[in-house]
Amino acid sequence: MNIPNHVAIILDGNGRWAKQKGMPRNYGHIQGAKTVEVICEEAYKMGINYLTVYAFSTENWTRPEDEVAQLMKLLRNYMKTCQQTAKKNRMCVRVIGDKTRLAEDLQESIAALEEATKDNDGLHFQVAINYGSRDEMVRAMNAILNDIREGRREGPITEEMFEEYLDTKGIPAPDLLIRTSGEQRLSNFLLWQLAYSEFYFTEVYWPDFSKEELVKACESYSQRDRRYGGTAGEV
Q1: Rounded mean pLDDT of 221-228?
Q2: Total structural domains in the chain?
Q3: pLDDT tens digits along 82-97
Q4: Helices and strands in the chain, H and E counts
Q5: Is the pLDDT of residue 81 over 90?
Q6: What's the Cα-to-Cα distance from 61 to each of 54, 184, 226, rounded to whole Å?
Q7: For residue 24, is the peptide bond before it cis, meaning its omega torsion is within 30 degrees of 0?
Q8: Is residue 144 situated within a structural domain?
Q9: Structural domain boundaries enclosing 21
Q10: What's the rounded Cα separation, in Å, for the pair 129 and 113?
């Protein structure tokens, strides 16, 4: 089986999973966080080197205030427990997104986690928090223009230059995007980076996503003919 180097996942369906069980939405988010831990370990065992998950989008702030507060609490707890997981599994963790809107204590936890894991040589794990691809690209363009005005860079702007200003600088583009829960859209996730990625959609809600489901996604990917705009013979 051809294992993708980088897998990106839109973690969808936590709330609907909880509703099916007669539980509050936050119960689904808690179970979903546990699934993240499992999939991180299984992905690395399979030979996946990069894993990026969509945890909280720029649009998620519009959700009910109580749900947002619970999600922030869950993220705070996860940043702390993730340090132990990363230490055990030699996982290098990086948070992408606009962190400036997050509470100061959460920003500090993120910085501590990234610093503590930066030299780890296991799975490269990216967590998208307050992330939106349009926002990322606007921030990147403003940063480039500012550097040009200040004399730190010269034009013209190229794809290579633009990628240096993205949150994902230094991270290879995803080979495979997985979205759970049956939805089939990108929801403002890694729009630039997913230009030539393969997509896999599953009806399974994220809390039920397992090693077996990850294997299914990778098997599907393995059967794809990736041509990057050319022909099979050219590639």
Answers
A1: 82
A2: 1
A3: 888 888 889 999 999 9
A4: 7, 6
A5: no
A6: 14, 22, 36
A7: no
A8: no
A9: 6-131+174-222
A10: 14
Does residue 137 belong to any structural domain of this protein? no
User: Does some domain include residue 147?
Assistant: no
**pLDDT 10s digits, 30-39:** 999 999 999 9
The answer to whether residues 2 and 222 touch, using CB atoms and an 8 Å cutoff, is yes
Average model confidence (pLDDT) across the chain: 93
Distances (CA, A) of 9 to 37, 65, 170, 214, 227: 13, 25, 19, 10, 22
Q: Tokens for 229, please give them.
A: 């705009």
List the 176-179 sheet strands across, edge first.
92-96, 124-131, 50-57, 6-10, 176-179, 198-201
The label of the residue with tokens 């200003």 reads 165
Query: What is the CA 197 to chain-centroid distance, rounded?
Result: 14
Helix residue spans in the chain (DSSP H): 14-20, 25-46, 65-89, 104-117, 133-149, 159-164, 211-222
Assigned domain for 228 exists:
no
Q: What is the sign, positive or negative, of the torsion defined by CA atoms of 47, 37, 221, 56?
A: negative
| 120-153 tens-digit pLDDT | 999 999 999 999 999 999 999 999 999 999 999 9
**Residues designated catalytic:** 12, 60
Read off the tokens for 85.
């997981």
- CATH number at 96 reads 3.40.1180.10
The fraction of the chain above a pLDDT of 90, given in percent, is 88
